[in-house]
Amino acid sequence: MNTNRLSENITAALNAQMTKEAHASQTYLSYAAWADREGFGGIANFLFKHAQEERNHMMKILEYILKRGGQVEVTAIPAPPENPSSLNNCFEKIFEHEVENTKGVYKVVKMSSDEEDWATWNFMQWFVKEQIEEETLVMNLLDKIKIAGGEKISSDILYSFDRDMEKISGDVTAARDVTTINP
Ligand code: OFO
Fold first, then answer.
1. Which residue from 23, 108, 113, 115 has the highest number of Cβ atoms inside 10 Å of its Cβ?
2. For 8-174, CATH number?
């Protein structure tokens, strides 16, 4: 008896999205390390936390595939893009990355609607909402940087921006408190 409730196409699309989330996690991780090396401790912490969030998104999809009796395919993750050239560039790159991720989410939503797989459609609505929040968050940060001078942001504004970023709370444990038991 076949208990797999996912079509071949949906399984492939969900696995692809899972890899996209893993890639997003690696990208945030790489930018976080860059930010830390540049001396932006608050921004680095924000990005480390976000890397963990993206990994959680990957796990959410993995668990869903398993729950529906489908086949999980863990594949190679593409390397993250090059390091940003500035703080402004860092958040521009993040915004572009999030928009790309949203496109991947929409692809699965469209496919599930075409196939009338309402379980997957319903599952993916969480990601649609999450992408709105993430795009808005990055958009607002970019606005702040723009007002503060964009590429020409002064070092004292940069200092207080970095300190403010330390205070932005995410859904996950602060990077410095992360352990394997408490990811
Ligand atoms: Fe950037 O959030 Fe995952 O989906």
1. 108
2. 1.20.1260.10
Ligand 1 centre to CA of 36 (Å) is: 22
Residue extents of the structural domains in the chain: 8-174
pLDDT digits (tens, 9 = 90+) for 75-106: 999 999 999 999 999 999 999 999 999 999 99
Q: Kindly tell me the sign of the dihedral angle through the C-alpha atoms of 12, 113, 131, 169.
A: negative
Question: Given ligand 1 and candidates 14, 19, 21, 138, which is best to mutate, with the most ligand atoms within 8 Å of its CB?
Answer: 21
What residues line ligand 1, using a CB cutoff of 6 Å? Answer: 21, 24, 54, 57, 98, 101, 127, 130-131, 134
At 140, list the tokens.
Answer: 């607002």
For residues 18-39, one letter each, b for 16 or more C-beta atoms within 10 angstroms of the residue's C-beta and e for the rest, the string is bbbbbbbbbbbbbbbbbbbebe
